[in-house]
Design brief:
Elements: H1 2-18, H2 22-29, E1 51-55, E2 68-77, E3 82-92, H3 102-117, E4 120-124, E5 135-160, E6 166-191, E7 194-205, E8 212-214, H4 217-256
Parallel strand pairs: 1-4, 1-5
Antiparallel strand pairs: 2-3, 3-5, 5-6, 6-7, 6-8
Length: 261
């Protein structure tokens, strides 16, 4: 009788001990690195290029350095033999999980897109060597947040054989929620003292596929980081294409209305 009273208590202790903490998952996930990527898909501009825009240094990525994991919710259903727990962890991408800084990636994306699909050359103004009369482009990252979540289903089966021996079976299943990116970038194009364009561009990207499952905690963490970098890459592509398209139209109009030599 005394032993039968201990079993539920012991089961609860085991169940609570099996629950994960946000700090333990955060420690694991911070060891993972992932690449941002940019693939050109817009038509190449094949006409003559007459103008050059100088891109000033982008000095701030506007993203936290470390990826953070916070436990959002826990549900525990304790029974005599079968026990179930559900936990949700919110994950926010940090720059330390990337293989390069985001501002470097954004600079490379602007250079690749503009020098392929636009009617102007885009060059980095590395040492402020651009002439005073040149077209100057200032880029500021106003918001840069990518987040996801990991859900953990934990099933614990406790079997007592009656002779003071028992078996415990623990089954874990992770579900990685699709990542969401909220990106807002401001650009300012000037020529001398004249401001030709100043505008903010926002992209909210959320993929249309469902969550991805894994029985391995490390693999789930890796999927989560890769999903977030993919989401940030796609959002960056969308905003860079939008900005480049508008700059292309503006510079094309200036070229058309320029007096003939």
């Amino acid at each position: 009788m005394k032993y039968s009273r201990i079993i539920p208590v012991l089961t609860l202790v085991i169940l609570f001990a099996s629950c994960r903490t946000g700090k333990s998952m955060q420690s694991e996930i911070r060891a993972i690195r992932s690449n941002l990527y940019y693939e050109l898909s817009t038509p190449e501009y094949l006409e003559e290029i007459a103008d050059t825009i100088y891109l000033n240094f982008i000095d701030y990525s506007n993203i936290d350095y470390y990826t953070t994991v916070k436990k959002a919710r826990t549900i525990i259903v304790p029974l005599f033999i079968f026990n179930y727990s559900w936990e949700k962890f919110n994950v926010t991408l940090g720059e330390s999980s990337l293989t390069q800084t985001y501002r470097e990636f954004l600079t490379e994306a602007f250079l690749a897109e503009s020098n392929s699909s636009a009617c102007f050359n885009l060059r980095e103004n590395r040492i402020n060597a651009a002439p005073d009369s040149a077209y100057m482009l200032d880029v500021k990252i106003l918001r840069n947040r990518t987040s996801s979540a990991i859900e953990l289903d934990n099933v614990l089966v406790f079997m007592c054989l009656g002779d003071y021996s028992d078996f415990i079976f623990n089954f874990e299943n992770y579900t990685v929620i699709p990542a969401v990116t909220d990106l807002r970038i401001n650009v300012r194009l000037t020529k001398g003292k004249d401001c030709l364009l100043e505008k903010s561009y926002r992209v909210h990207h959320k993929p249309d596929y469902g969550g991805r499952k894994s029985r391995n905690s490390f693999l789930a963490n890796e999927i989560c980081i890769n999903n977030m970098t993919e989401s940030l890459s796609v959002a960056t592509k969308q905003v860079v294409e939008n900005i480049t398209e508008e700059l292309h139209g503006l510079m094309l109009q200036n070229l058309i209305h320029r007096p003939l030599p």
